[in-house]
Each structure stands twice: as C-alpha cells, then as structure tokens.
Design a protein that fits this description.
A alpha/beta; B mainly alpha; C mainly alpha; B: mainly alpha; MetI-like fold; 10 helices; C: mainly alpha
C-alpha cells in the first residue's frame, strides 16, 4: 500500500535503533522510576499510578500480578505510550536502553513500538483488523521495522508463523482472521509481536480470553520463544499459577502501587505482604489439604478517585495497624531481590531497612538523534 | 396490473397520448444527470470532511465541521434551494437561476441537492471512523508502531466503509426526492419538476408510474450496495 | 513479639509509639464512599453541560409556545382577511406583515408551527405504539416469527418513504374524504383530509426504525439475568417486556423519537411545499414558503419568517437529539 509504510525511511529508523545501548544479560534493560499516570476527567484529575518503579533485566520473564483495576495494564501501557486519550503519564522516567521513552517524540516512539518493544493484548478475537489477511498484517509490521520487502519479508513472516506452531504457515498467510480460532489468532499476534525480534515483549494477560487447554499451549510457546530468542518478557496476569510456572521475578501491584516484589520463590515461599498472602490463598493447589476452602480477599479494589489515606490495602487487611490508616508505607528491603511495601515488616522486626532504588544507569538521551 | 408487470406504466391523463414510459424516458436523463453530479459532489465533500473531523478530533477544525454539518442537515432541501435562488440568483445576480443552459447553471441546483446528503455523510464518516479508532485492533496497530495516518487511511477507513456505503441507498433516495423540489425551484425540465406539476394537476397515472420507477431504481441501488459490502468485507460472501 | 519491642521499632522509624497497635478489621474504614448521585441527576448534568443543547431547548420551547399559546393572544384568525391591508411589510398592527390576500402572517405562522409540531407529535405517538409492539413481538418471540417480521421491515425500509407517502396520500384520499364527511368541525377538519392522509401514511411507514431498535434491544436484554429470573418466577412474556425490557431500552427509544419527530416535520414541509399537505385556507410552514416563492423579490419577509421557524424547529430537535444521546449513554456518566 502506498500509505505510510515508507513514511519513515530506514535511515531515521536505524539512527535511533543504533543509538540504543547494548545491555549485558542480567543487567536492567528497562528501568522505570516514579511513574505517575493521571486521569483527566470532567470532575477533576486524579492519579491511578502512584510513583511506580521497577526494572526489567535482559533475558528474564517478569510477572506482574494483582486483581483487575490495580494498575498492571496501565503501567505497561504507559511504558508503551499506549494510554487511552484521557490518561497521561505525568511524572517519572522510563529508561530503556539509554533512552527515556516518556520523553521520546511520538514519531520516534512509533519506531520503537513493534520493533524493539512489542506488546500482546488480552483478547485475540479483536486485536486483528478483520478486513486484511493475516499475511498482510504481518508484512506491514516487517516492512515498517526491518527494511525488508516483497519475498524477503514474506519469508520472515512465514518463518515466524511456523515458529509459533501454526500448521501450514503459507496457507495461513492468505487467510483472514475470522477463518482462524482464538488460539490460532493469539499465535498470529505473538508472531507479529516477535517478528521484528524485539528486546522486550509485554504480554497483557494473553491467555485470559482463551480456553484452558489452549492457555497452557500459549504459555509454553511464550516460554520456549523467550528461551530461543533470549529477549525479556513482562507477563501481566491475575493468575498466580501462571506466574509461578512462567516467571523469574514477580511484581505484585495493588491500588496503583507495587506492594511486593521478588523472585518467584520470594513471593511464593517467603510471602510477606498480606495482599500477596490473600492472592495465594485464593489459588487452588493440588498439594494442599482438600477440605480447606479457598479464601477470597474480602472487600473490593479501591476506587482510584477515593483512595484511602494510608495504605491502599488497609481496609481489606486482616493485620491492619494504626499507622496503616494514616501513612502510606515505604518499601522495606528484605534482602536479595525481595522487597515489600508494608508496615508489618517493621512492626514484626523483619526489616527496618528501606529499599534503596538504584538510580538509572548511565546518561539518558532526552531526544533520539536523527540522521 | 398485468400491464404493470410487463413494464407498462399506463398513460398520462393530462398530456393525453403520452405514455408514462415515454415521459420517463424523455425526462429522467436530465434528472439523472443533475442527481449524479450531486451524489458525486456530496461524497467528494462529505467524506473528506468527515475524515478531517475524525483525524482532528476535539480541535477547532472538528467543531467547525460538526457545527456546519448540523446546520446543513437541519435545512430542508427545498428551503435551501429557495434561499440559494434568492441570494445568488436574484439578489447578487451572480449565477443563472433557471434551466440548464451552461455549466454555471448546475452550481445552484447541485449545491441545494447535495448540502443535506453531504452533511449526513460527514457525520456518518466521522462517527464510523471514531468507532473504528476506539477498537482493540487499532491499539494493536499502534503497538506494532504504525503511524496515525497509516492506521486512519489503510485500516480505519476500510472498516468504516460499511456504514458509509450503507448510507448511499438512503442518500440516493434523498437526492431523487430532493430533485422534485430543486427542479421545480430552478425550472429544470426533468422528471422531478414534471412530477410536481402532475401532483398539482392530479395526474395520478404519471405520479404512480414515476413513483414506481423511482422505487425500483432505489431498490436497485440497494442491491448494488449489498454487492459492494462483499468487496469491502471478506466475511460477507454473496454465495452463502 | 512484645508491645515494647514494637513501640521501639516504630520509634526507630520516626513513628508514634502506638503506630503498630492493631486496628479492628473494618472494610468501610477510610472508604467512606460518598453517596453516588442518582442517575437522572448525573444525566441532567451531562445534558446541561452542553450549552448548545440548552440554547436549542429554550428555542424549541419558545417556538412551541409561539405555535400553541400564541394564537390566544392575537386578535385575528388564520383565514381572516384584512381588506386594504394586503402585502404589508412587518408593522405595529401586523408584526409579521400580511400576504397578498391581506391575511395576518403572524397568525398564519403560528398555525404553521402548530401543524408542523402536531404532525411530528402525532406521528411520534403512533410510531411509538406500533414500533414498540412490533419490535417487542419480534424480539421476544425470536425464531421464525422474528425472521418473517424483520423481512417485512426490510421491505418497507427499502422504499423511499417520501415517495410512498405521496402514493399513499393519493390512494387514501377517497376513503378519507368520505370519512371526513360526517366529522364534526375541529382541528383535523380544518387541516384537511390531505393532512390526515399524510399522518396515516407516516404512521404506516415510519415505525420501522423504532421496531428495529426495540427488537435489537429486547433481543439483547432478554438473555440478561433479571429477565430470566422474572421468567423463572412465572412472569409471562408480555409482562416482562412491558415492565422490565422496554424501560431498559428507553434511552435508545427516546433518541430515536427525537430523530423521528424531525423526519416527520421535514417530510410534512416537503409534501406541503409540493402541494400535498394541508388544504386551503389552513397554513403550514411548507405551504407558506411555497406561496411566498412567487413574490420573493418584492416581499422577502413572507419567505424568511416561516423559513426561520422551520429551521429553528429542525435544528433544535437535531441538537437536542444529539445531546440526549450523550446524556443517556452510560459511558458518559
């Protein structure tokens, strides 16, 4: 098509992509600091993400968990700069390979999106344009970011369709989305997200809308591809089971804040925050005693327009203390990667040490260089 | 009735000796010419303005376009025809007001006919585009790094085409009906003005005949629209 | 874990010694949700935040008062001829001027508005009844009934309404004329059989849009929990539709009705303009504009007055319809 696909010539693209820093394995690829997202509403503005900070390291799978409405998806949308039009990132830095995504001009952000940074959404049924073939929707991405055209681009597309486990990839190229099942569509979407070899893939509950049997296959696929390609993955889910099988490190979010973070073992075996405990208590396990009922967390996620004064979880917390109603807890360092935003850490003497968040490594380019 | 099924629409009472078929054959080409120009013109004006309003959503340009379209779609066609006739023809003496002698004489009738349909098209195009742009796949397209203009023209416009094409049936009907008045006001010797004269002369066979002809014509347009759906949307197959 | 230890740890962090005292579990603490405003209040707020809609509402009310209350304050009737006062420009005695027969245009415009609004409202009521009934039956019964009923709607929809009204008005004329013979003198009789034909034709044609909307809405709503719950408790179909489903479709119905009133007024003006509407000497806005056409150069006010009135009506209905759609849209709250 004549429109747009050549609008950014390879020159501009490569200048920006070449300026991205190389990051060694295990070093932070993405460093988010003090991220604040504000909703602009008719009745006045209010924040939905309150100064969130975290790292994503090269080659790891980071899980983000929490109930619906905790700000998991919004945080990652803010990183991708895909917030709905009435929401805005009003503070913080999003350092990605030496570039601050929060301050990147939109034109350069477009070069990053789908190229070095990719995102997969929850519902595969609606994420593809119904009027174009699978192939043309893959090719437009490849032509946009890889500077490959015609037969060459087609070969890349077919290769990725094969890698995500679709049978007869050549035939799938010429099929329309409505001719594919939900599981197949999600594979196509993952293929599109991966075909430009991104360093970071963000998966926003990619299995929630799928059948349970397909869910497992898609999870396996994400893990296998991550091992093959060695990229980083952020996996958003509200399913603790999925997180346990897939991730290296986990962030637990509540009320637009990170309440606990750590390795999978920290979160599952050294659970500290009462909210994480609550999430685990409502997860069915095969090992646990069968008579024990699953315990739901009482109450509901707070309305971001009427956040409680102190800790956002205080009203639902079985261990609530006086201070919890008055002051938002700081993040306590529990050693290693483990940290928890709860006054209980101090009250029980587990840790009195506040978490020192390392500053963003290296100087940040405010604007991308142009050729 | 059997004559009707054979395509014979009877004879005129007033202009005796003329069959209705003959009258239609004589007069319709004139109306069709004006009508076709009006349809093309309203598409050429309405759709781009709708795209502009959707692309510049919430800006001054959007507000100007939406306000204008709300004003023009509230003006009955006959009123606009009369106002244009008065302002440009009789008051400013800028444009010819009757007949179709030169290309200038097409300007006022076409403007009167297409203002309403164009503003409807603008509204529909804008609404359809905004609807598509709020769908999930637009977000995924953005996540793939596609530019706003590319998304608008390659993906959103084709998805919005179905509601836009759907209005073409009623739009044609509106222009045909509008033609009755506009031809009368601008003294154009087409089927429309002839029909209005028949109404005042109570020449029922001609009124009946032309109405049946127009109705068949519009149903044919709707059929074409149905076929066009299949071209736009791969999910719609005519053979199923 | 002792109390003293806790207090020390709290103080080490610069907190009050009692900071770590347990609080009773209370879901509602700190979450005192202010009482949500009732839904109609929020809808009204959305509506009134649209300044253009407010202006349109005021204008429409003014025009309605002009048409229905106005004639009571003017000492003339629509067919009263003032000899020697023909073709007057607007002046103190005749605020809108007079026409070539010496009739007061102010009164004639008032009656024109009255005719337009009446056509709109009567059509709306007729369509409301037919459309809701038809749509409810199609939506609630579903299956083959729905299939047949909706094919009929599609056929009617594919016909150009204004032309069919023309044919219907012509063919209905004879039976309605005979019906009018024995009728007492009243508004209908004054407006004439042509007007009545138009009303009947509108009622027979314009219900399809509403029927579609009601059917679609009921189709969707009947599978909702509350409809099924009512059914499981033995409520009969018609009762559920009437007391649960129709009220829940009302936003859509209201918006469609404003659109419909506007369409009816448009069509009536058009038909009057080509001479199918009210019978003389009654005036409608369409006939007023048409008769002013011949002397447009000399007496432009004869044209401008009814033209401005009809524009005010259609424009304000358009804006009000748009604003209602926003106000009734749950996403806007």
């Amino acid at each position: 098509m004549a429109f747009g696909s050549k609008q950014t010539t390879a020159e501009v693209d490569t200048a920006l992509v070449r300026s991205l820093q190389k990051v060694e394995a295990g070093q932070p690829l993405l460093q988010v600091r003090d991220l604040t997202v504000t909703v602009h509403a008719r009745k006045g503005d209010y924040d939905v993400i309150h100064g969130v900070g975290f790292d994503v390291r090269t080659g790891e799978i980071l899980g983000v968990v929490g109930e619906s409405g905790c700000g998991k998806s919004l945080t990652m949308s803010a990183v991708m700069r895909l917030l709905p039009s009435n929401l805005e990132t009003t503070g913080g830095t999003i350092a990605y390979r030496g570039v601050d995504l929060a301050r990147l001009p939109e034109r350069d952000m477009e070069v990053m999106r789908g190229g070095d940074l990719s995102m997969v959404f929850q519902d595969p049924m609606t994420a593809l344009d119904p009027l174009y073939t699978v192939g043309s929707q893959m090719l437009e991405t490849i032509e946009r970011h890889l500077d490959k055209h015609g037969q060459e681009a087609r070969e890349v597309a077919v290769d990725y369709l094969r890698r995500v486990g679709l049978s007869e990839p050549e035939k799938r190229m010429d099929q329309y989305p409505f001719e594919l099942s939900g599981g197949m569509r999600q594979r196509v979407i993952i293929a599109i997200a991966l075909c430009c070899n991104p360093s970071l893939l963000i998966c926003d509950e990619p299995t929630t809308a799928l059948d349970v049997t397909i869910q497992a296959k898609v999870l396996d696929l994400v893990r296998d591809l991550q091992r093959q390609m060695g990229n980083s993955v952020v996996f958003i889910s509200h399913n603790m089971g999925v997180i346990a099988t897939l991730c290296d490190r986990v962030i637990v979010m509540y009320g637009g804040r990170i309440v606990e973070r750590g390795t999978v073992d920290d979160i599952f075996y050294r659970t500290t925050h009462p909210y994480t405990t609550g999430l685990l208590a409502c997860m069915p396990t095969l090992e646990g005693p069968r008579e024990e009922p699953l315990v739901p967390i009482p109450g509901m996620v707070p309305d971001p327009r009427k956040m409680p004064l102190g800790c956002p979880f205080a009203p639902r917390c079985p261990h609530c203390m006086k201070v919890c109603r008055q002051q938002v807890p700081p993040e306590f360092d529990l050693g290693g990667d483990h940290a928890c935003t709860c006054w209980l850490c101090a009250a029980r003497g587990t840790s009195g040490k506040l978490l020192q968040t390392p500053a963003v490594a290296g100087p940040l380019q405010k604007e991308a260089p142009h050729a | 009735m059997s004559a009707l099924l054979h395509g014979d629409l009877g004879t005129s009472i007033v202009s005796s000796g003329y069959s209705v078929n003959q009258i239609i054959a004589d007069k319709f080409p004139v109306s069709a010419q004006v009508g076709l120009i009006a349809i093309v013109f309203s598409c050429l004006v309405g759709i781009p303005l709708g795209i502009l309003a959707a692309y510049k959503r919430g800006t001054a340009a959007d507000r100007v376009v939406t306000t204008l379209s709300s004003l023009f779609s509230s003006l009955p066609g006959f009123l606009l025809a009369v106002v244009l006739l008065y302002a440009f023809g009789m008051w400013l003496h800028a444009l010819p007001t009757s007949g179709l002698k030169s290309w200038q004489s097409y300007i006022l009738p076409v403007a009167a006919l297409s203002a309403g349909p164009a503003s409807v098209l603008t509204r529909i195009t804008r609404a359809a585009l905004l609807d598509v742009l709020s769908q999930d796949f637009t977000r995924f397209l953005k996540a793939k790094g596609m530019g706003t203009r590319y998304i608008l023209f390659k993906h959103a416009l084709r998805n919005a085409a179905i509601p836009i094409v759907t209005t073409l049936g009623p739009l044609t009907a509106g222009i045909l009906v509008g033609n009755l008045v506009v031809e009368t006001v601008f003294s154009i010797p087409g089927l429309g003005s002839y029909m209005v004269r028949c109404v005042s002369q109570r020449d029922y066979p001609v009124i009946m005949g032309t109405t049946i002809f127009y109705t068949t014509f519009i149903v044919a347009i709707l059929l074409v629209v149905d076929i066009v759906y299949g071209l736009i949307d791969p999910r719609i197959k005519l053979d199923e | 874990m002792t109390q003293a230890g806790q207090a020390a740890r709290a103080q080490a962090l610069g907190l009050d010694a009692h900071a770590f005292d347990p609080e009773p579990f209370d879901l509602n603490a700190a979450q005192e949700l202010p009482q949500e405003e009732p839904i109609w209040k929020r809808r009204l707020a959305v509506y009134t935040s649209n300044k253009v809609a407010l202006v349109a509402t005021v204008l429409l009310l003014a025009v309605v008062l002009f048409g229905f209350v106005g004639p009571l304050f003017v000492d003339a009737s629509y067919d009263q001829v003032f000899r020697g006062e023909e073709k007057l420009a607007p002046c103190a005695a005749h605020v809108f001027g007079t026409d070539e027969m010496g009739r007061d245009l102010l009164v004639r415009c008032m009656y024109g508005v009255r005719i337009s609004m009446s056509v709109g409202l009567i059509t709306a009521v007729a369509v409301l009844v037919v459309g809701c009934l038809y749509g409810s039956i199609a939506g609630w019964c579903g299956g083959k009934v729905d299939l047949v009923l909706m094919r009929i709607v599609e056929i009617i929809d594919s016909l150009p309404a204004q032309l069919v009204v023309l044919i219907m008005a012509i063919s209905l004329k004879a039976p309605i004329d005979s019906l009018f013979e024995g009728m007492p003198d009243g508004f209908f009789k004054q407006a004439g059989s042509g007007m009545f034909c138009i009303l009947v034709a509108f009622a027979l044609l314009y219900w399809t849009g509403l029927a579609r909307i009601v059917r679609g809405s009921i189709f969707q709503l009947k599978n909702e929990g509350y409809a099924m719950a009512a059914q499981s408790m033995g409520a009969k179909g018609p009762l559920i539709v009437w007391s649960h489903l129709l009220p829940n479709s009302s936003p859509l119905i209201i918006v469609e009705m404003t659109q419909l009133v506007r369409d009816a007024i448009f069509s009536e003006a058009f038909l009057s303009f080509i001479g199918m509407g009210v019978s003389v000497p009654m005036a409608s806005l369409g006939t007023l504009i048409n008769s002013a056409r011949d002397n447009m150069m000399l007496y432009p006010y004869e044209m401008i007055e009814p033209a401005v009135l009809i524009f005010l009506i259609t424009w304000s209905l358009f804006v009000i319809g748009d604003a209602l759609e926003d106000a009734l849209d749950p996403r806007m709250l």
